[in-house]
Amino acid sequence: MIILKSKQEIAYMREAGKILAHVHEVLKDAIKPGLTTKELDELAEAEIKKHGAEAAFKGYHGYPASICTSINEEVVHGIPGLKTLKDGDIISIDVGTIYKGYYADAAKTHPVGVVSEELQQLMEVTRQSFYEGLKYCMEGNRLSDISHAIQSYVESYGFSVVRDLVGHGIGQNMHEDPQVPNYGSPGRGPRLVEGMVLAIEPMVNMGTHLVETLQDNWTVVTADGKPSAHYEHTVAITKDGPMILTSFS
Ligand code: MF3
Ligand code: CO
Question: What's the CA-to-centroid distance between 39 and ligand 2, angstroms?
Fold first, then answer.
């Protein structure tokens, strides 16, 4: 069941999203070779609290940290720890916040120092694939129009989209209906209407789309060990088109 949100509820999610956008800026500026992912987690948690929000991920199904930090072949849900960032790595950072009981969720992938051209392209295609999907976030379209646009764009560059993990509705829970796959034929699934709020989150692999989960039961990695990037925003469908809730503007 898809829970539609009122303007007031979307305003709360926008607050959660602004705090989240700020946290992403702080983390991006902190990234440098030698930093541990645990240091990023501590920084994120402090910033989230400082702005009167809560970290949505901490304790979620027992998840032990405030953010997810996934390096290179790690796709999502990497647990922050004593691993240090190295020049030439890419790091996907996923952050969730709760404000007045409402959730926001967004992820970005950043370079550490100087990265190869192919990694730069992987990150840029992943980011742009989100915006290709966003073009279809209009009332009257069908949900899988978003999915199809993302997949087509990604595959036109020879990259692949992860299928085992999907985007999702979001509101007073982090994960609500509907699921938002990043692949599939257009013209399927529910029609988009005002008040739907979706976390759209392409995960893009340089090689195979297949993924595995590590022994820690959280970290998802590519099956072939090739790198992966992630980009996510929380988006509200309005009469005037999509509104990205997890940004400043
Ligand atoms: N942002 C992630 C998602 O949409 C949630 C991270 S799982 C957690 O699936 F356990 F870390 F919270
Ligand atoms: Co999400």
Answer: 22
